[in-house]
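Deliverable D4.2, example record:
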Amino acid sequence: MQNPHLGRRQFLQHSALGVAGAAAAAGTALGADPAAQPAGEAKTSPDVSTKVEVLVVGGGTAGTIAAIQAARAGAKTIVIERGAQLGGTMTTGGVAFPGLFDAWGKQIIAGIGWELVQESVELDGGSLPDFSQVPQRHWHNQVRINEFLYAILAEEKCEQAGAQIAYYEFPHAIAETDEGWQVDCVGFGTRRRVLCRQIIDCTGGAEVVGMLNLPRFREEETQPGSMLFQLGTANNPGRDHRAPLQRHGHRHYVHGADSSNSRTVTAANLSGRKTVLEMVRKEKTRLMHLQPEASFRESYRIVGETIITVDDYRSGRLFDDAVCNAFYPIDLHTATGVRPEPIPRGTVPTVPLRALIPKDSRNLLVAGRCVSSDRLANSALRVQASCMAMGQAAGVAAALAVAKNTTPLDVPLNEIRETLRRHGAILPGTG
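Output generated by the structure prediction step:
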């Protein structure tokens, strides 16, 4: 307990001396790395070696669910995330309305993602929409969550499932091994070597797929990103699903936003923050909330074993190897805004396992907005509920591939579907 008679400066001095003394007692100078190389010599060996069965790269909307699911299905799992928390666009980006879980009067996506959303809303004292009611506008059934609660609940779910989390790290080299993969990751002060049997790329832009020189694609133009903030009134996360979106914050389009590398992400963040500052000065109001990072809508997509076309999506094609549902209007944002294109009444699109597997690959899956799809189909598939469902399907496929000592495409579909059902997912073609 702090001595009430010590001033702040004295307290800090006493604290520093105490920490230094403890470090000296342990035989290590404060701040020194006992494994540090002599000056001028490059360090080549990892600081940490981690052997797991499933590596999830990217702890965003899809990756969080993939990691929890793989671990719950019995696979030793780690999720590597370059940022400071789980949830991605929903938490760091602030798009805390992860729809849509329902279509045409019934719930069509459930499972681990829905479990997390429900608990976030309940713990926050909020309310959930009535999915038996078909809304006049698609956003009327959006679920609003407290993004801060969601992020820490996601960590709790990972811990309970036994999935390890490594923040501030990202792969810089990947090589195939006799048993799967060797993935070398770096973070500040950390070199980690991960040996694993399956990888799930949930980076949003198929970064692992790109590092392996497997095909991925995107258009020259990208949809604008969004910088979310709040002026004038207090930020009010979650609570009321009935409120219009603007009551939950302000949004500024960041045109040309590109999430494919650190340079362009930096540029998008700088641009968004600069505009917010200009608005504060112009409107002479207080800045009450600002997300730490812009949210991005579009990046690279994989060339999968199949590609979901907009015609597949609009028609609600039930793929032979469908592993989850999806639902959202065609939602392509441009420089002038967005005009959502509703899909035909009664239609529920599906996502096939082959769209989550890079073409001609082994022991590798993706989940999330980098799903193999054309641009218009992807503009709808990229929303969070659908990405959660893809993450859960990928987590099951990876865990079963480990258990059967095979690659995900060779896992029997009936076993993937049955495992998904046992873990609460709603299977395509069922009520």
